[in-house]
Amino acid sequence: QVQPVESGGGLVQTGDSLRLSCVVSTPVFSNYAMGWFRQVQGKEREFVASISGTGGSTIVADAVKGRFTISRDRMKNTVYLQMSSLIPEDTAKYHCAAKYTLRGIATPTKADDYTYWGQGTQVTVSS
Predict the structure, then answer these.
(1) Distance between CA 63 and CA 87 in Å, rounded?
(2) Which three-class secondary structure state does DSSP give residue 23?
(3) Contact of 58 with 70, CB cutoff 8 Å
(4) CB–CB of 33/96 below 8 Å?
(5) In whole angstroms, what is the distance from residue 10 CA to residue 30 CA?
(6) Cα–Cα distance for residue pair 25/78, rounded to 1 Å
(7) For the chain: N or C, fewer Cβ within 10 A?
């Protein structure tokens, strides 16, 4: 069973940086596209960033482009979301998601495309 587990959330101030991590227990990590989504209670889940299984392709949402970066470490089965210049509008619960891809080159951006989800980690940015 593939189970993403997120960590790294917390309470920070406007302008601070934070790095989220997501570990996935699978022997074929390079076949899994990984995505980060965020959700505020009462609102729909919002795409943040995704990275292909090989790591060769990344997509970042316009709302965070230039401030957030997604990366992965295949030796650690971990995907990261580096967040900088945080603003209160970034406050949300951040979820990591995984999708098996045969060739490891797809970079899905829709929540429905992903199969496995983590429980999420809360990020709160104070003004």
Answers:
(1) 11
(2) strand
(3) yes
(4) no
(5) 28
(6) 9
(7) N
> What is the Cα–Cα distance from 112 to 41, expressed in whole angstroms?
19
Rounded Cα distance, 26 and 98, in Å: 11
- Reading the chain (127 residues) residue by residue, the pLDDT tens digits are 889 999 999 999 999 999 999 999 998 999 999 999 999 999 999 999 999 999 999 999 999 999 999 999 999 999 999 999 999 999 999 999 999 998 888 999 999 999 999 999 999 999 9
How many degrees, rounded to 5, is the angle at CA 83 between CA 80 and CA 21? 25
3-state secondary structure of 108: coil
- Per residue in 93-120, is it b (16+ CB within 10 Å) or e — as a string? bbbbbbbbbeebebbbbebebbebbbeb
Question: Which are the contacts of 29, defined by CB distance < 8 A and separation ≥ 6?
Answer: 53, 72, 74, 77
Task: Write out the two tokens for 94.
Answer: 């951040």
